[in-house]
Sequence to fold (444 residues):
Amino acid sequence: MQITVTVNGVTYTHDVEPRLLLVHYLRDVLNLTGTHIGCDTSQCGACTILLNGKAVKSCTVFAVQADGAEITTIEGLARDGQLHPVQEGFWEKHGLQCGYCTPGMIMTAVDFLQRNPNPTEEEIRHAIEGNLCRCTGYQNIVRAIQYAAEKMRSGS
Amino acid sequence: MYPSAFTYYRAGSVQEALKLLMENPDAKLLAGGHSLIPAMKLRLASPPALIDISRVPELAGIRDRGDRIVIGATTRYDDIQRSELVRQVLPILPEAIEVIGDLQVRNMGTIGGALAHADPAADLPAVVLALGAELTAFGPDGERTIPADQFFVDLFTTALQPNEILTEISFPKPPAHTGMSYQKFANPASGYAVVGAAAVVTLGDDGKVAAVRVGVTGAGPYAVRRQNVEQALTGQEPTAAAIEAASQLASEGMTFNSDIFASDEYRAHLTRVFVKRALTAAIERARG
Fold:
């Protein structure tokens, strides 16, 4: 089936098998390997991307379902060499150790901060329930999201 | 993990979806896909065809129809949570949805998908039972309405026929002095309900319980109403002692699931405890 998607501002058209998962389309067809595959069972959130602005687990979406959609992956967050505030937060607050969960964590945080620009720590922890960090580095991940929230609120 | 190959159809209308379903009797309907796709990846399900109904305009959305609120079957959890109307009138829905899956799952999952799938540990079955919802099915003979009480038939089994499509869920607007609450004991790993209890309580002008409905999920093979609890509380002064006495009946006459995480005995205990918590919170809210 032919699909057309816009990924990080670039429009692509491809013929895909219906069973092709969106995460495989992004990684294997578009070579956007920043989106990771972790558990492949909808649990860990490493494959999280933005589908029409909302965080979804791309291992649990068929590419054909994304036909016509706007997709943002981790590769599409930085603008003109400037890190997105959430990326900057992870850098500044040491929000990653091995880095495997990081792209998914960041994409979830981007969606979450759009809907809740001034979250409490508890709200942040609830928001990232669908993202697992096997380094258990949650403390600094929460701090990274707090940093981003503050930076985005101040509009800088 | 790849599912086995299937043919993908995208329906533009409910009529088209039904036609495709009649032509492909072993096809599965795809809405949010967050139960179906994991099952397909594990090859627990290998449907030869999927009919994507997620873009059928009339199946999605939240409508105010006077004395009822009607939610289209493919309305996503996130859109229900963001609805001011639902927050005002049916606050138990966002309360329960907030503890379904995670943020990403709530962005994709749909209310109708969850109800039609009838996972024994899903949250919303208890809620639609407690709210006295009606579910509309569209099939070859047209539309029919199924009361929530008759919808859940067995493990992963509903009153829907294989050639019927769940189109909408209709909720009566609760009268004044109604409080509602969903209380859940979540499996710490999966987040699914080991036991979930929903209670909707209306108090009369005399402060006594005028009406009460209780739904329980997770505990047994399918979600059930707890009429014995409701009967024990109706007409009573809602004191802590009366709530406690009624809640003790919650586990009577039920079949309980048993697994490595929770024995049937433990689930029976949790049912009594969480029915009590749901009733207590609902009554507190009914008092305003």
